[in-house]
């Protein structure tokens, strides 16, 4: 019997599970999913959970029920590629024939003193829930800082504005403008939206230190009631440890450079997916799912003793959609730039379709 161990029940891991369980060509296999939560989480919507506009029950999807799938609710503490074992916090050790690492990403603090210990996060369901609890206890007229003007920071700031109209919300970004990875039409539209909705933008910021409720920008202290960190991500620490141990090549974000078949180089029984795998594309749920589709194809071939295809289907990403509260948004679909209500409606539709097809 073929035994696949999947670490992480995120978008990539869930896609592989769905594809393999639906494959009528393969038999005699077992999947062990190691995921500390009892459900798949819609990570792309954690900003809304943190802001308090969505309850966490709306961001949970049950894993498939199938005799071939076992869910181990535990935390991975060590991965030993050389002897094909995975160690868990409970003390259990799992052995595998094939391994899929989909452990996702963590906040990257860029060496800023105090940032890791003294800021809030939206990188997990638990941390986003904690962020919401703290934000809702901020007094009337309190000051909230969001560090990082990328997609996560923008969505968090706009959603928080919709949730708490009384707050003084400040978005700090080190660049000349927010959303620097998007075309000017989009970041200018979002900038105007923030101005109209009384969100203060602080560009060319340089966060040098964080203390409890104190932010140092260019060395000057600013007192705040809450500080949310969205200024970059990096692969899970376990993957960073593997990278150091096996001297793996990474991209500028620290993601592991894989073979064309999504293997960790030197370990053809270990695949890597999602935010931990290098790609020409930015990390996203779409990318993780596209990689998951390819990995499911490869496992199906391998388990039937068939050769891998010379080339894999090209991963086609549809674009990026961002929200500005519940009524406005922005997006880039190929070369087409979208602003206003249409991209927000499209994003809601994409989310509904994902939940529908995932059994929610």
Automatic annotation (TrEMBL):
Cofactors (names): FAD
Pfam families, A to Z: Pyr_redox_2 (PF07992)
Record bears the keyword Flavoprotein: yes
SUPFAM superfamilies the record matches: FAD/NAD(P)-binding domain
MF (Gene Ontology): NAD(P)H dehydrogenase (quinone) activity
Metal-binding as UniProt keyword: no
Span of domain FAD/NAD(P)-binding: 3-292
PANTHER family: 64 KDA MITOCHONDRIAL NADH DEHYDROGENASE (EUROFUNG), APOPTOSIS-INDUCING FACTOR 1
Family according to the record: Belongs to the NADH dehydrogenase family.
Name the record gives this protein: FAD-dependent oxidoreductase
């Amino acid at each position: 019997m073929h035994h696949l161990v999947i670490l992480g029940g995120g978008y990539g891991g869930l896609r592989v599970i769905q594809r393999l369980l639906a494959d009528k060509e393969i038999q005699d296999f077992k999947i062990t999913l190691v995921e500390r939560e009892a459900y798949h989480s819609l990570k792309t919507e954690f900003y809304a959970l943190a802001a308090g506009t969505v309850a966490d029950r709306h961001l949970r999807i049950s894993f498939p029920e199938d005799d071939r799938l076992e869910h181990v609710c535990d935390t991975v503490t060590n991965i030993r590629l050389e002897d094909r074992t995975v160690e868990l916090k409970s003390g259990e050790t799992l052995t595998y024939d094939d391994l899929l690492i989909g452990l996702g990403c963590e906040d990257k603090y860029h060496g800023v003193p105090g940032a890791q210990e003294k800021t809030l996060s939206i990188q997990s369901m638990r941390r986003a829930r904690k962020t919401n609890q703290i934000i809702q206890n901020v007094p009337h007229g309190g000051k909230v800082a969001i560090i990082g003007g990328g997609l996560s920071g923008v969505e968090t700031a706009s959603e928080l504005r919709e949730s708490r109209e009384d707050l003084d919300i400040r978005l700090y970004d080190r660049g000349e403008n927010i959303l620097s990875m998007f075309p000017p039409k989009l970041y200018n539209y979002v900038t105007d939206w923030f101005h109209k909705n009384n969100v203060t933008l602080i560009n060319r910021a340089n966060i040098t230190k964080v203390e409890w409720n104190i932010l140092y920008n260019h060395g000057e202290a600013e007192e705040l009631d809450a500080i949310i960190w969205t200024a970059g991500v990096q692969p899970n620490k376990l993957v960073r440890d593997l990278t150091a141990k096996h001297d793996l090549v990474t991209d500028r974000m620290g993601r592991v450079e894989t073979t064309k078949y999504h293997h960790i180089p030197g370990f053809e029984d270990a695949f890597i997916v999602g935010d931990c795998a290098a790609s020409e594309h930015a990390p996203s749920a779409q990318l993780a799912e596209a990689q998951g589709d390819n990995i499911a194809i490869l496992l199906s071939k391998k388990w039937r003793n068939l050769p891998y295809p010379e080339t894999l289907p090209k991963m086609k990403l549809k674009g990026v959609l961002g929200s500005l509260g519940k009524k406005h948004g922005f997006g880039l679909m190929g070369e087409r730039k979208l602003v206003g209500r249409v991209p927000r409606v499209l994003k809601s539709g994409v989310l509904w379709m994902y939940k529908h097809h995932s059994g929610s």
